[in-house]
Amino acid sequence: MIKSINRREFVRYSALTALGLQFLPFQGSRAAPSDRVRIAHIGLGGMGLNHLKWFANLPEAEIVALCDVDELHAKEALSKLKEIHPDTKAQIYSDFRKVLERQDIDAVTIATPDHWHAQITILAFQAGKDVYSEKPLSYSQHEGKLMLNSQNQTGRIFQLGTQIHAGDNYHRVAEIIQSGVLGKIKTVRLWKTGEPPLIPILNYQEPPSNLNWDMWLGPAPYSDYAPEKCHFSYRYFMEYSGGVFQDFWCHIADIVWWSISPEGLKKVSANGEKSDGAGDTPKWIDVDFKFKKLDLHWTSTPPNVPGAEGRGIGAYFEGTKGTLICDYSTREIRIDGQIMEDIPEIPKTIIRSPGHQQNFIDAVKARSQPESYLEYARGMTMPMHLALISFKLKEELKWDSKKELFKNNDAANQLLFRPYREKWNLIGA
Q1: What is the pLDDT along the chain (429 residues), one digit of tens a residue?
Q2: CATH (domain of 95)
Q3: CATH classification of the domain holding 294
Q4: Shared-domain flag, residues 281 and 185
Q5: Do 184 and 137 belong together in one domain?
Q6: Closest Cα partner for 67 from 49, 87, 40?
Q7: Residue 86 class from Cβ within 10 Å (0-12 exposed, 13-18 middle, 19+ buried)?
Q8: Kind and range of the H or E element at 92?
Q9: Is residue 50 part of a domain?
Q10: Please, what sign has the CA dihedral across residues 214, 220, 225, 226?
Q11: Are residues 324 and 363 in the same domain?
């Protein structure tokens, strides 16, 4: 029988975990079912406000802290929270480390720029907090390993914010492919159309008084402030993200890793060109991946396959007996000249999600990993990082999937991790 623990005991376990004296295991201990999970939101821009709205409307969640390096973002978030819960006592913070010091907080959500994801996650694990973090998982490939090592040491819960994962369409696509009705899947084609916005110049200036620019930069290389580099448009600068490619990879690659779990990556070769203007992420990027039993291709335009035309994003599975094309909400199967949306004879074998955020709350209370758990998310995200390294170096790269290193390429291996700015190396990496 699994023993329940009350909130006081749960907080004590969390505090001990932060000190490295006691690990709360994945299975065997539960927060009492009547308890509400006390949540802090870190990063309160556009997606951060979505986090707030999602969790504020869950009966088993209570938002107790709001944190952003931009004072205006934090104040706007508190105003939005009061619209939902007028009696909220949530406190505002500008430094996430102050949030992690609070022993009454069970979990945090992270919607900061990409370059902060890993350190905040690891520090939250060490402080005894569970984590719901936006995609992509991390800024660099090696950070994902650091995150997974920390989770294994602390026994915390992690959910990657790939909300589309919770939809019925992806569940059904995975069931159809895993049934074997399409035969062996030997080739998959992924794509996402659209270029990054044109940023003509960078208007360097003093940062506004409401923004802690030095902390916004954090572990990234120092740069003078330019509004074009901050908040939403940060994603179009390689110092902080990887553009359209990095923004959308997890959303559509998710269905591939869920359906067929590619293993044994051998080679990656990326071609493309840099964005026009001041941004330096890919204007377009095409990538060929060679796995042990799969060829995977990413393009910035729809491939020349049936059903792809007109789809801005999609996945096309080529099997020995048939094909399947899908996007977030639709699918089309072709077998022996027949075109269909579903095959009713294939049973539903995957439990449907209660909702991405509810799934996280359930996992926190049950001490079991949720749908988009960390180990899964890391495996799905890694090829994206390797592709951007190939894009930067403009060469095909050979990969040793066991050692997690490029073969005979020191320049490429140097790019697996970017050393943190010394002032903001908070985990000793």
Answers
A1: 223 333 333 333 333 333 332 333 333 333 444 589 999 999 999 999 999 999 999 999 999 999 999 999 999 999 999 999 999 999 999 999 999 999 999 999 999 999 999 999 999 999 999 999 999 999 999 999 999 999 999 999 999 999 999 999 999 999 999 999 999 999 999 999 999 999 999 999 999 999 999 999 999 999 999 999 999 999 999 999 999 999 999 999 999 999 999 999 999 999 999 999 999 999 999 999 999 999 999 999 999 999 999 999 999 999 999 999 999 999 999 999 999 999 999 999 999 999 999 999 999 999 999 999 999 999 999 999 999 999 999 999 999 999 999 999 999 999 999 999 999 999 999
A2: 3.40.50.720
A3: 3.30.360.10
A4: yes
A5: no
A6: 40
A7: exposed
A8: strand 91-93
A9: yes
A10: negative
A11: no
Q: Does some domain include residue 295?
A: yes
Query: Which residues fall within 8 angstroms of residue 29, CB to CB, at 6 or more apart?
Result: 2, 3, 5, 13, 367
CA–CA separation, 59 and 45 (whole Å): 24
- Same-domain status, 146 and 174: no
Question: 286-300 b/e with 16+ CB inside 10 Å = b?
Answer: bbbbbbeebebebbb
d(CA 169, CA 171): 5
Q: Which residues constitute the domain of residue 386?
A: 167-350+380-424
**230 belongs to a structural domain:** yes
Q: Assign 385 to helix, strand or coil.
A: helix
133 in the same domain as 260: no
Question: Are residues 187 and 319 located together in one domain of the fold?
Answer: yes
Contact between 259 and 232 under an 8 Å Cβ cutoff? The reply is: no
Same domain, 121 and 187: no
Count of domains forming the chain: 2
- The pTM of the whole model exceeds 0.70: yes
DSSP secondary structure letter of residue 343 = -
Residue where the block lists tokens 């790939």: 162
C-beta of residue 28 within 8 angstroms of C-beta of residue 106: no
Are 122 and 7 part of one and the same domain? yes
